[in-house]
Amino acid sequence: MQSIHFTVAYWCVLVAALLPIVCAGIAKYGTMRTSPHEGGYDNNNPRAWLALQTDWRARANAAQANTFEALPFFFAAVVIAHQLQASQMRLDILAVAFIALRGLYIVMYVGNHASARSIVWALGLFVNIGILFSGWR
Question: Which listed site, 41, 63, 66, 77, has its alpha carbon 20 to 30 Å from 25?
Answer without folding.
Answer: 77
